[in-house]
UniProtKB/TrEMBL annotation:
UniProt cross-references to InterPro entries, sorted A to Z: P-loop_NTPase, Pyrrolopyrazine_biosynth_F
Gene3D superfamilies reported for this sequence: P-loop containing nucleotide triphosphate hydrolases
Database matches in Pfam families: Sulfotransfer_5
Native source species: Dinothrombium tinctorium
Protein name (database record): Sulfotransferase family protein
Domain of life of the native organism: Eukaryota
Amino acid sequence: MARTNEIDERPIMLWCHPRSVSTAFERAFMQRSDEFECLHEPFGDAYYFGPNRASTRYTNANLPKDVKLTSSTFESVFDEILKSRSGKRVFAKDMAYYIFPHLKERNLPLDKMVNTFLIRDPHKAVPSFYKLSINESTGWGYFDPNEMGYKQLKDLFDFVVEKLKQPPILIDSEDLVKNPKEVMKKYCQLVNVNFDERMISWNSTKISKFDKWNGWHE
């Protein structure tokens, strides 16, 4: 799929599962803050903390100290992603397991986005997620295999390709780590973005958007 000369203003979604190197992928787009508005796991608010929250992980009694229940719904998050941002294009990364179960019961406008996917070998991702799920730094306390989200990621991928007829754009995190420049250049071509060298190198710094998930990004 070659890049066209037309300006593509559709939000770019990177759908993934936990511990898939997705935050580093997102960080690459954060380097281009003059061109992109990056949204960090926005559907997590609706899934864990909103009025229609699907997860039982957090109850009113065990909410993290710095997190409160919100008014976010899956619909309101989509509205936030799709709103105009003064010439900036939106890049958002999120977990497929947050939204896939709701596709049948809600009219969610995935067709208005460029949906892309990132996956990592479960032999690497699952132990990493397990370790942090029982780590005091995250405050989770237990491992829930349903939150790995591999099946939902596969189901969402099939939905995007078969139902929405969008071309499949899938990245293996191992390829990304081994050949970041080549993979990012190809990805940019497929989502109609000019590649920028800033996407493959940056200085370590605190990112305030990551604060809502304590312990996961150190």
